[in-house]
Design brief:
Length: about 375
């Protein structure tokens, strides 16, 4: 899972480290040359001072002036100590600058250019790349980095910039207990794995002693009604359905009414996803939302569909207002950019990752685990 992006990010970290190290070595060389010049100048000044003191000692002094010579001697005792402290301070400052490098704007732009290509290649939306760049720039630009920690600092900065985008999901089971019946509306285009995901969620809730009712409100596809009916049979849960072409809002409303009568805990509503008739679909979904007043609107998308999934999420979120996202086929997604993009564009958490066809193949999204899978 996400191995392709992981490999690309590892390569980027190594290249970025090399670029910064080369600039740091160049700066270190310049600083060393400057220090050598300073040391030579300091040596000349000390020799000149010794000559001056020697001339003063050789001059015959009168007894009256001897007292005047003794008084500055006490000052001279303090001067070497002061010079020593200044020398030590200068020495440690030089050590610090020798082993560290301040990342300039041109350095940042140089290393980010490669990262931008990698993110684009791995299904990350342009808007999301801009957000990552902004976060990364705040972390790195102008920061003084020890040479031996360059790769570590770059990796940590990238991790934090992506971490700011991702949102930790809520506990669905606990949330479902807050109202009865708790109504969940599932959104997404046809073929995204929406119906199977509904069955997986029903299985999860049933295993946590919550009684479910399924609503086959995708009445524009007979196959969808049949598929959900088979899942209901396997899960031994109830399903409310009507004939092909029936009013989807009526099906959803009947399911909620049935759940109340049967004291069911959760209603899971399947919906149509005909993107070729987008305007009609959106109007239909808006009507379902108005009538059913769902507690949760879940957008379901394939993790492997690239920027299409991000664009779909944006359309549904702008029109309906989604609450969370489930990404299917995450087990065969080698890129991972969709999870980052959808989180950033919708500002909603990824709730689960679908990782197979069995009911148990549903993994709760964990942003720390996700970052670890990216090698961060």
């Amino acid at each position: 899972m996400f191995n392709f992006l992981k490999k690309k990010l590892k390569s980027w970290k190594e290249k970025s480290k090399k670029k910064v190290e080369e600039k740091a070595k160049k700066q270190e060389k310049e600083e060393k040359e400057e220090k050598i010049a300073e040391a030579k100048q300091e040596k000349v000044e000390k020799q000149e001072k010794k000559i001056e003191e020697s001339i003063k000692k050789e001059k015959p002094e009168k007894e009256a002036k001897k007292q005047e010579i003794k008084e500055p001697k006490q000052e001279k005792k303090e001067e070497p100590e002061k010079e020593k402290q200044e020398g030590e301070k200068s020495f440690f400052q030089k050590i610090k600058s020798s082993f560290s490098y301040k990342l300039q704007e041109e350095d940042f732009e140089d290393i980010f250019e490669n990262l931008e290509e990698i993110l684009l290649e791995n299904n990350t939306a342009l808007e999301t790349i801009d957000e990552i760049k902004k976060n990364l720039k705040q972390e790195l630009e102008g920061k003084e980095i020890k040479q031996k920690e360059i790769e570590k600092e770059i990796q940590e900065a990238l991790k934090q910039s992506i971490e700011k985008i991702l949102i930790e999901p809520f506990d669905l089971v606990e949330k479902a207990k807050t109202e009865k019946p708790f109504v969940i509306l599932f959104l997404g285009i046809n073929g995204s794995g929406k119906t199977t995901t509904i069955a997986k969620i029903s299985n999860l809730l049933q295993k946590n002693n919550l009684k479910t009712v399924l609503a086959a409100a995708d009445t524009f596809r007979a196959a969808s009604i049949e598929q959900l009916s088979k899942h209901a049979e396997k899960l031994k849960t109830e399903i409310i359905k009507q004939h092909y072409g029936a009013d989807p809002t009526a099906v959803a409303f009947d399911a909620i009414k049935h759940a109340k009568a049967k004291n069911a805990d959760v209603v899971l509503i399947d919906t149509a996803g005909r993107m070729h008739t987008k305007e009609n679909l959106i109007r239909e979904l808006e009507k379902i939302v108005r009538v059913t007043k769902p507690n949760l609107k879940v957008f379901v998308a394939e993790s492997i569909t690239g920027n299409d999934a991000t664009e779909q999420a944006k359309i549904f979120n702008d029109a309906i207002g989604i609450d969370t996202v489930i990404l299917t086929k995450a087990d065969i997604d080698e890129k991972g950019g969709n999870a980052i993009s959808i989180s950033q564009i919708t500002e909603k958490p990824i709730l689960f990752l679908g990782t197979g066809q069995e009911y148990k193949d549903l993994t709760k999204f964990n942003k720390q685990e996700f970052l670890e899978k990216l090698g961060l």
